[in-house]
Amino acid sequence: MNIYSDYIKEIEERKIQGLHPKPIDDAQLLSEIIAQIKDLDNENREDSLQFFIYNTLPGTTSAAGEKAKFLKEIILGESVVKEITPTFAFELLSHMKGGASIKVLLDLALGNDAAIAQQAADVLKTQVYLYDADTSRLKEAFENGNAIAKEIIESYAKAEFFTKLPDVAEEIKVVTFIAGEGDISTDLLSPGNQAHSRSDRELHGKCMISAEAQEEIKALQAQHPDKSVMLIAEKGTMGVGSSRMSGVNNVALWTGKQASPYIPFVNFAPIVGGTNGISPIFLTTVDVTGGIGIDLKNWVKKTDANGEIVRDANGEPVLEQKYSVATGTVLTINTKTKKLYNGDQELIDISRSFTPQKMEFIKAGGSYAIVFGKKLQTFAAKTLGVEALAVFAPSKEISHEGQGLTAVEKIFNRNAVGTTPGKVLHAGSDVRVEVNIVGSQDTTGLMTAQELESMAATVISPIVDGAYQSGCHTASVWDKKAQANIPKLMKFMNDFGLITARDPKGVYHAMTDVIHKVLNDITIDEWAIIIGGDSHTRMSKGVAFGADSGTVALALATGEASMPIPESVKVTFKGEMKSYMDFRDVVHATQAQMLKQFGGENVFQGRIIEVHIGTLTADQAFTFTDWTAEMKAKASICISEDETLIESLEIAKGRIQIMIDKGMDNAKQVLKGLIAKADKRIAEIRSGEKPALTPDANAKYYAEVVVDLDVIAEPMIADPDVNNADVSKRYTHDTIRPLSYYGGEKKVDLGFIGSCMVHKGDMKILAQMLKNIEAQNGKVEFQAPLVVAPPTYNIVDELKAEGDWEVLQKYSGFEFDDNAPKGAARTEYEKMLYLERPGCNLCMGNQEKASKGDTVMATSTRLFQGRVVEDSAEKKGESLLSSTPVVVLSTILGRTPNIEEYTAAVKGINLTKFAPSHKLLVK
Question: Which of 868, 244, 280 is CA-nearest to residue 628?
């Protein structure tokens, strides 16, 4: 009774927090519950029935196995439960999605009792989460003449699991709720500092926006019971910054529909809108849940009588309201006309929200069901030896004769599956592609594990070259939450077939390296497609897409992803970097110059940035590709010279070998295989058989941006502009300012060097600057704390070997100790250097944070409100983003330096340099 008693105790504790019982995933607990159901006199029997029926997680959880087994007993008459008839038992099995439930249904369908077999077959016809072991059983039975197996396979070939679903409603009534003005980061929907609770959906749901907003949503639902609440980013983009499944889950939890009466806190069909649409990675997550994302365009740039854009005193376009979506506005979405209405008034065409593919996702309750359904239909048709019926919307295939291919078009054409043979596809085509590398990070990984369980997956797809589970987002503080969650996650992923940062057996040293850095190293082919559970999955080899935890799960389980081929924007460089500038300044200047060239329009948004980097190796080029998430790009591709790419691959090989030497390879020797693939790719380049990836000379781009290095005369800073009178202009990453803007007078309370935007060179710059400052001033005194978190242990090891770590130790007041990691987050900082454990640290915002109201100068990528630093009662927190030398000098001075102080401080220091390639990087 101990396990059940502990569960009841936990329920009482959750009641105090206003929470329902936690869903059950443990077989041992459910076994005890089943025993109590069988005992007719048990005092806990009624509660146990409720837990069994309504509170047990489906899929491949161990509890699901026990539930399916017991339901099978009931159907076969081996157990009699008056509250669960055999018919009801079949209904419960039909809601369990896959895994153990499919095995039980196949046992019954292929059994000897004809009546039971027919009932089981009818349920199986509605299921799509079948894997090779399941379909192999069906195929064998069919080939042995089993009539029921034939009936099921024929149903699958017709895709009746989809065609018999209700059609999407022609009219969907919504009532609006303005979630915020300006760009809405997923931090508002699922705050990083609540990452530990993401797998507890009800608990995590309480952190969405605010308690007041949640009450407003409930009030709207009470006032409009027949309508869905649509969350809106007024004058901004919805879901920027991260690809959080937890954010969409929270929106669905508060505004969507329950997926099944027997599965708690799993909702679907959220509806979201934004004046400037939905962030691409967030929209993918909306599709996963069968939701709707709408580009409202309800504010437009005002024009004068001559058609010229009217600008304000700052030169910014003046916006005027085209129509109102104020909170409480009732609108109608018509899925047939694909228009948005207010009463009878047509407001805007929303066809892009209702493409044939998106309509399928909405009808099926999410994109997973369509992906698995298509695979199931293909299996069935092949088994029967017939052509698959044209049930699903045909993939849009766009091909322009005589037009060359961009780099991303080339990669998608190579990796595409199920397309018309011999047809060359261009941007806009809908494509299923094989995925080469997959990354799962630790604060979304628990959700990825849940998604894998829910889709009944038990092992990684054999077509994935390599996959990695990181430990970087929880690296800073090894607290009770991390201790409870992370070992469980590492074991699950290790068993599933991923290389894991932590060894569940404890053989190798825990590695908290930043996930993007590891993925950048294990990507050994610039033709690769990478899917990663973080928006900064932007490799400088291959093309990488940040994704929600569900899309990561799908890639791990199937080895595939589906998306339209994106348009590309070509970025090239001219001129020469000044000696005192750092490459980070070029990255910021790229965004500033792009906005200027295109009159404030962000041509990068939702597109691929094809950057002709040429001469920078993967580590340094990653600074550019990583930042493209902040440019709102869908992804980025680096075009490199042959020798540069070879150098990058050799570096990657060395780092993969270090992982092997540490004992991180698995039984399938995935890491060893990656080195072999890298060797093969290097040989292809050297021999001329297959040079480094380049676009065609006659490729077509949405736009071309030329960055002029000559005009970058001083360090550039991304400013959150927290006091801008126009709320929509705050926290956007688009306000890029020169150092001189601050006049050497802006107070800096804390500096941060670390996370994914820095590489080994940045750590060496830090060491060189400290030595220079001591030589100039006789000592180093910090006027503000400086937190340093190297991205990887490899970098720490290399710095130690080269003597730089010793320099950093000399000036530090704290150095991480893996044998005694911090058990609690730091809340106060002294004016000194902190050498923190490799990982995300302040950038993630879920563990360490700056003091409230601080002005932080950081090499990070995050300037969203409340992420790195929260507001205090007196002052808004600011996270300004800059290069390593600017951060160092700001902490020494306690303020922003002026240009003279900066140039003196970096004199003679080897900053990250970049020179444009003189080669024509096209085919």
Answer: 280
